[in-house]
Amino acid sequence: MSYVKNLSDIPILFKIFTYCADTMPFQFDRKATERLIILYEQHPNLYDITSTNYKNKVMRTESYREIAADMKKELNIHVTYHDINKKINNLRTQYFVETNKIKK
């Protein structure tokens, strides 16, 4: 016998925990990161400002979806557009931090 008749009967903390668990970002290991970089290089419209499709948001989103599909197929991992975008931004930031350390 279920005591919960609808979602509003569930305490708010359980709702928050369930939402957070479902939306947790993928944790990239070294193998996944290396594969992401290789796949990212195959889509110049994501990083080459001279590319004709660089400003085309539809093409950029499609490229991210293709990368996610390839990672799922090759490594059997589920990553989202946001996971990939965040990881690429983190890698770019870390690259500039390290190069600035060398310059100093």
From TrEMBL:
<dbReference type="Pfam" id="PF10545">
    <property type="entry name" value="MADF_DNA_bdg"/>
</dbReference>
<feature type="domain" description="MADF">
    <location>
        <begin position="35"/>
        <end position="104"/>
    </location>
</feature>
<dbReference type="InterPro" id="IPR006578">
    <property type="entry name" value="MADF-dom"/>
</dbReference>
<protein>
    <submittedName>
        <fullName>Alcohol dehydrogenase transcription factor Myb/SANT-like</fullName>
    </submittedName>
</protein>
